[in-house]
Design goal:
By secondary structure, this protein is α/β, with parallel strands linked by helices. It has one domain (13-251). It has helices spanning 26-38, 50-58, 60-66, 76-86, 96-106, 120-133, 152-162, 175-183, 198-203, 211-215, 219-226, 228-251, and strands spanning 13-16, 19-22, 45-48, 70-73, 112-117, 138-143, 166-170, 191-194. The strands form three sheets. The chain has a four-stranded parallel sheet with strand order 6-5-7-8, with helices on both faces. The protein starts with 12 loop residues before the first strand and ends in a 6-residue tail after the last helix. InterPro entries: WecG_TagA_CpsF. This is Polymer biosynthesis protein, WecB/TagA/CpsF family. GO terms for molecular function: hexosyltransferase activity. Pfam families: Glyco_tran_WecG.
């Protein structure tokens, strides 16, 4: 697949554990999205949080894949990392669960939006919710995330025919990024965005944390409480490991960690 790096002036980048993350406000990110769409500049998009950074630190192939994505900052972990490494946090927490629906709501120009991933039920319900939030757009479910390799040509053909401005890919880390990098090009969409559990949240299948916990940047704790069997290792083991790697980067610049 061809490189998706924007050819015009890029945003300021901050390296977190070998991954270059855009240091932008939500307004700047939204303007960048709209410009890329208007100019039909194929750009792969993902988000970096503590978990993704740990995965990239353990998997050189994943780190290489992310180097060709526009990466946005997600969560308190990367803010702590930015404070340690650069003296200040990122300008905004651009987690996909909030940023993507907010961007679509605010975008006045009608866009074509494709959904790919999760279960079919959750994807359909997520599409319905997005239509409530942003009725100006054309939103279609391309396929759920449970497909075989033999089904991929049909999915890709449907993408070529629909060619969404934005394709939301919800397959989990790192499968979604590898799939985007290995299968998509400008003929399929303009902005393929790896969105993790977004469809599960939009559908209501997975509840969001109460507003006060989100304001306190503690949504990770709420998620661990409601899904301890799946998430305890990610947070209890992963968060301290992430911070250790950040301090190692601070003390040993240039070390991959």
């Amino acid at each position: 697949m061809q490189s998706s790096r924007p050819p015009f002036d890029p945003p300021e980048l901050r390296e977190i554990l070998g991954v270059a993350v855009a240091s932008v406000t939500a307004e700047q990110a939204s303007r960048l999205f709209l410009r890329l769409i208007a100019e039909r500049r194929f750009t792969k998009v993902s988000f970096l949080n503590a978990h993704n950074a740990n995965v990239a630190a353990n998997d050189p192939a994943f780190e290489r894949v992310l180097s060709d994505f526009l990466i946005l900052p997600d969560g308190v972990g990367v803010d702590v990392a930015a404070r340690v490494l650069y003296g200040e946090p990122f300008p905004a927490n651009l987690n996909g669960t909030d940023f993507i629906p907010g961007f679509l709501r605010a975008a006045a120009i009608p866009l074509k939006v494709g959904l790919l991933g999760a279960t079919r039920k959750n994807a359909d319900q997520a599409a319905a919710r997005l239509l409530e939030i942003a009725p100006q757009h054309r939103i279609e479910v391309i396929h759920d995330g449970f497909f075989t390799e033999s089904q991929e040509p049909e999915i890709l053909d449907r993408l070529v025919k629909f060619r969404p401005d934005i394709l939301l890919v919800a397959m989990g880390v790192p499968r979604q990024e590898f799939w985007i990098a290995g299968n998509l090009d400008r003929e399929h969409c303009t902005l393929p965005v790896a969105v993790g559990a977004l469809f599960d949240f939009l559908s209501g299948a997975v509840p969001r944390a109460p507003g006060v916990m989100r304001r306190l940047r503690m949504e990770w704790l709420f998620r661990m409480i409601i899904e301890p069997g799946r998430l305890w290792r990610r947070y209890i083991v992963g968060n301290p490991l992430f911070l250790l790697r950040v301090f190692r980067q601070k003390l040993l610049p240039g070390d991959g960690g």
